[in-house]
Amino acid sequence: MHEREERAHFHMADVRHKRITARRAVAVGELSAGAEAFALIVERRLPKGDAMTMAEIAGLQGAKNASQLMPLCHPLPLEYIDVRCEPVSERHAIRVYCEVATVARTGVEMEALAGASAALLTLYDLTKPVEPALSFGGVRLLFKEGGKKGLWLHPEGMTDAERAHYQPRAMARLESVKATVITLSDRASQGEYTDTAGPLLVERLRELGADVDPAELHPDDPEPLAARLIQLTASGTHLILCTGGTGLGPRDRTPEALAMVADRHIDGIGELFRNQSSQHTQMAWLSRADAVLIGTTLVIALPGSTKAVAQGMDILAPVLAHALNMAAGGGHA
């Protein structure tokens, strides 16, 4: 009995501590109709009526009711659904697309797949009186966007027409951006513990294509940090990420170091970090995360914990490339 109870235990994924972000997913599938039935579908002459229009309506209903069909699927307030039926004459097939978007803590892949599946089933239902030898399949995601991982593309790829229509948005990369990471910690600089936040920032920047050396490690002294920032700016560094020294402790003085050398303050970056991080913990409002421009060099101060750094990069990475472009004199669009 105990073994059976263990196997029967299910639970929805706990998304309470995930950040709310914009989410989008597009699913696709095809109905193979055969030459005769394909012509009747496209010419809208099926006995039951216009199959493609009804399938698009059914796809909307399928996406909206995904959580009722799949017990562990989170019910989500969907903000956009678009279902399209596209005839493919060379295969005598109807290709169905379902695009779903919302702003939530979890993705909308299942809603997109449910919408595409409902549309295909409806095409099947309306077409079977004239052609019982129907088949449909190939139901899969084209791509999904949002959340911590950003853009995911299916390995089977997309056609040029699909890519042009849906325009999947990858995170802007930092190719050719010269960056430096500085960890501020008295204890780490004295060898009392191993810095992990700085190496994580280096790793995340390299994933975005930035040119960055291993993290520098300095004690929590504002004057030497200010001098180092001036040196890096003069050497052509475009982006400097500092970790540590943004709390309320007596030695937390990183924002003061930035203020010593700042030409302009960028209040919005600190506000963005605190606002988004507060979805994980209310303690985020105590952070003094900050950002300034020294000439055209963008300097950002993040908290010192590895977890906060990881969350900070999830939050800030989407805006870094545009911020650097603007600082260098590029456009605002």
TrEMBL record:
Keyword list, A-Z: Molybdenum cofactor biosynthesis
Pfam families for this protein: MoaC (PF01967), MoCF_biosynth (PF00994)
Protein's pathway: Cofactor biosynthesis; molybdopterin biosynthesis
Domain MoaB/Mog: 180-323
Gene Ontology terms: biological process: Mo-molybdopterin cofactor biosynthetic process
The keyword ATP-binding belongs to this UniProt entry's keyword annotation: no
Keyword Cell wall biogenesis/degradation among record annotations: no
Domain of life: Bacteria
Its biological purpose: Catalyzes the conversion of (8S)-3',8-cyclo-7,8-dihydroguanosine 5'-triphosphate to cyclic pyranopterin monophosphate (cPMP).
Protein name: Bifunctional molybdenum cofactor biosynthesis protein MoaC/MoaB
Source organism per UniProt: Dyella psychrodurans
